[in-house]
Amino acid sequence: METITSIRPLLAVLVSLLIIPLLVASGRKPNVREAWTFVAAVAKFLIVLSMLPAVLHGTEIVYTLVQFMPGAAIKFRVDALGMLFALVSSSLWIITSAYSIGYMRGLKEHGQTRYFCYFAICLSATIGAAFSANLLTLYLFYEILSLATYPLVTHHQDLEARSSGRKYVLYVVGASIGLVLPAMLICYDLAGTLEFSKNGILAGTASRPLLFILLFMFVFGFAKAAIMPMHSWLPAAMVAPTPVSALLHAVAVVKVGVFSIVRILTGVFGIQLLSSSHLGTVVCYVAAFTILVGSFIALSQDGLKRRLAFSTIAQLSYIVLGVALLSPKGMIGGMLHIAMHAFGKITLFFCAGAIFVATGKKNISEMVGIGRRMPVTMAAFFIASLSIIGVPPCGGFISKWYLALGTLQAHQIGFLIVLLFSSLLNACYFIPITYTAFFCRPEEAMFENKVQEAPLFCVVPLAITALISIILLFYPQPFLRLATMMVENIIGM
Amino acid sequence: MSQNYPALLVIVPLLSAFFISAAGWVNKRLCFPLSVAALSVSAYSCIGLLLRVLNEGVVHYRLGGWPPPWGIVYYVDYLNGLVLCVVSISALINLIATKKSIEQEFPEKTGPFYTLYVLFVTGMLGITVTGDAFNLYVLLEIGSITGYALLAMGDEDRAPLASLNYLYMGTIGACFYLLGVGYLYIATGSLNMVDIAHILPDLYQSKAVTAAFIICLVGVWIKMAFFPLHAWLPNAYTFAPSATSSLIAPLMTKVMIYVMIRLILTVFTPEFAFTTLAVSHYIVWLACIAIVMGAILALAQHDLKKMLTYIIVAEVGYMVGGAWLGNRAGMTGAVLHIVNDALMTLCAFLVVCNIVYKVKGYAFADLKGLFPKMPFTMGAFVIAALSIIGVPPTCGFFSKWYLILGAIQAHQYGFMVALLFSSLINVVLFFRVFEVGFFEPFSDHEGHEHHPAVMAEAPLSMLVPLYIVAVGLIVVGLYTGDIVNHIIRFVIPKGFM
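Output (structure tokens, whole complex):
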């Protein structure tokens, strides 16, 4: 594989950090401040995009910042999977920034400068994690992301925010220090390196029980992936302002968790080792459990954001399941689901936020007939829920299709049934929301029959992401291409 | 002049102490610039000395031209070259940062304070630079006695008693060390460390030598507050003036760790310490207990300063354990942690200094609303906290990395668990402080209408040095590779795996 050295990965990480002094300096002029956010977001997206052609050509872009021990460095490598994730999160940051303006100003939130600053740090860390070349760099950005999200989760600074913040830190930081850090050091001691490689680094270094323990230290240690029982921080974190839930708790933060697990499975353990020791299947069972239980709990939630959170928990495990199946189609499906779920779920969160801004309602039981008042929002909600359920005409269909094929390819019919049953559950908890929003008897409706949407800054972003969800079915590039390339590279086709 | 760096770095502050004392009678305002000048010369010499060691290898300096083993030899290698730089630079930064705080806390005593301050630094530098076991005791007493006086200048009701307690314990510790040196002198007839090291190998079976080593070790442990010999530390450091705590807390314990490592590596050999003596396993377990108890006791505190003092107790356990793991990674971690812990303790105590300067208190209840009130001070506090927790890329992460790696390689999983436990407790400790500063006082309006807090930040003269240290935490972290490859690698003897 061809590699070129370039500073662009580092620039992509730093651009949103460099903007922070400007954000603070223009704190009293909100319009200037938001302009800077847009500048950073667009610049970040363009830098990421500028690396896409090279990656599509099969070239890897490498940059070493500091080498502090042999095999352990702060080093970036842009490969197909990292590119896929970086594209998703950097493009969605632009849209979320617009949405944030509508949401935060619509609610006259306090501390907006702080909010935009930490958002920028979070995006730096996300891109850093996407482009990490080794476990140490990944851990570094993972930790920065955990800590930078804390002030966003606890933005309201009330008692509820404090207790949710505690839960968040306890789970996410506690698991990473308590489990990932020792597992990483044991890996380093065994393999002498932490560099991700397509054959893994642990092959032939340890006994199966030790590998088993290490694998689960990683899978549960990256608690951002919300694999049960490490999931309960995510519903609690829903106290955050909705744009935070949308970008971070549907795209950036949780996907960094899943992304880390994918890297562990493919880059540290390696496909051969996982399949020869049957450890992949064990991960599949854990993921399948999370998928089913998460979906069941989602059914019982009345708070819209909480329902979305449990849906996210289940959907994240799709990705883990797909990759842990170790079949080519399954892995493509899993990686593709990072993108497909992102566009669908962010739309759903945007809708939840738009409803809150326009009406102040948080619970599904209070949203009867809301479709007449906010038709655009609820239409987008419907499209996005179709994408999550995984039916055409939405992008979610493609990733589910590949996942289903993957289970067949791996001869694991049980997991196919799990996937299909979960889709049914998804439909059960999403469709009634749209149904009661539009089709209720006039005397049941809780809203006047007058169109009154949230501010344009809220509505336009959610319409865009809903549209992209549809477009992705017909034109899933470059995401499908990137996922395929990554899998071909791993399997060695 | 560069030939005389080893002498300059001790003599200049020692002599200036007299001038500062005299200046205190004439014009108090002269004391500060004189102290800064003296410590600057020290710091400059230390850096020059480290560079010379890097270029030319070990530096021997005969004080007064007397040849060893009769005269006193200053002996500077990679290990104390590094520690000297840390000590002198921390002391200088702290001196500059705390000027306003000293003027506020005891405006009438600045003369004596600066005299003692410079003498204390002389003691610390002397302990580090000397190659003579008895001379080390003398300088240890200089450092300790000035330390007692500095600590006693704090809280009128409680500081003198706490300092007296420290004086008793400290004196016992120093006596133990002296006793050990006496035994060594009886056995070898020499006080020069290198000389003793040459004579000792034939005597390793001697019970007197073993006793000498253990007695020295216990003495040093008392001085570094190794649990359960730590009882003097928390009160002494808590009730001391802000400027004193931020001087002594980073330096005293770290310098004593240096002395312990010096005893293991230079005076005795690692072979003797780890193989012949065969107690390292137990000492690592003691270190585990120190770490766990330090963390738990820190959890029980209700004010910031005392919490930090118990964190020091836990950190001492890190370094003792790392040094006694008996492998390269552990020793590297211990030496690296001397540097890192000095810097992060300095950073944390300078933050306390700023808070006390503005808020006049350091109990958790005094920290309410501090994030909006003092955003810059708290920003530095967050960096220090992350380093103490061990979050990359701050330096605390990298020393923890080596320590845990050492624990894994030595199969001391108890030590690994203790380190992780203490990191997790640190998360709780610091987030508890963040919570008070960030959330309280709670507003009544569902969080949407916070009253914009008025900013009341500490003056620039305190903030700039604080930020030099805070940014230093990250820079040192990023340059860990260079520090290890160019300095610490040579500290550890070649045969040592």
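Strands of chain A lie at 3-5, 60-69, 72-78.
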